[in-house]
Design goal:
The chain is built from two helices and seven strands. The protein is 20% helix and 36% strand. A seven-stranded mixed sheet has the order 3-4-5-6-2-1-7.
Length: 105
């Protein structure tokens, strides 16, 4: 199962990080993250983040971590977004709508 979670403290901040981990990372990335070039492992790439309908939610940085070289040991995507709680909520919602589930403690 692929999971999604906010990795930064709640509230208003300049940057928020959302992490996605699991076997569907590549298909979710292809659907919700648009870039001019393919993501390279461990390289920050400027991207557009879309919702599940294809509408732009934000622009930010995406970093792809290939298993087993990630925080979770699985394939992982880390998104560095603008810190607006609404943007963060909608990005997480988009991943949930596309098949990820919320991470548990």
């Amino acid at each position: 199962m692929t999971i999604v979670a906010v990795a930064t403290p709640p509230g208003k901040g300049a940057v928020a990080i959302v992490r996605v981990s699991g076997p569907a990372v590549d298909s979710l990335t292809a659907r919700l993250v648009k870039t001019r070039e393919p993501l390279q492992p461990r390289v920050a790439t400027y991207v557009r983040i879309l919702d599940d309908r294809g509408e732009r939610l934000d622009r930010g940085l995406a970093i792809r971590f290939a298993a087993p070289n990630s925080y979770t040991g699985e394939d992982m995507l880390e998104l560095h977004l603008h810190g607006s709680p609404i943007v963060v909520r909608e990005v997480v919602r988009a991943f949930l709508a596309c098949g990820a589930r919320l991470a548990e403690p």
